[in-house]
Specification:
5 helices
């Protein structure tokens, strides 16, 4: 899957979570997170090392945007510090990306 396609799926994840939070104001954040994990295409392939962190951040953004107080589990940070495995792309650290030119 290309980086562009992954970005599009992230945008779709965000839009659907935002719509769910707006349409179902009595739903808890955990319920929305569970719906995202079960319904997001290729989530376990795209975010294998940090599913919990990714879903937490993706649910928290529209939650706050709708003026809802984030639930305590949404405030926890993880995954980005390596606690849940390496971030996607860290294997490239120190290497030039093949899709970028040096003068770009």
């Amino acid at each position: 899957m290309t980086a562009w396609a992954q970005g599009q799926l992230h945008s779709i994840d965000y839009m659907i979570v935002k719509d769910l939070a707006h349409t179902y104001p009595t739903a808890t954040g955990r319920e929305v997170q569970r719906a995202m994990v079960e319904g997001s295409p290729h989530l376990h392939e795209r975010k294998a090392w940090h599913i919990d962190d990714y879903t937490r951040r993706t649910v928290r953004k529209p939650w706050e945007g709708l003026g809802r107080e984030p639930e305590p589990w949404m405030r926890a940070e993880g995954g980005r510090d390596g606690s849940q495995g390496p971030r996607a792309g860290t294997w490239r650290r120190g290497r030039r990306r093949p899709d970028r030119r040096d003068d770009a």
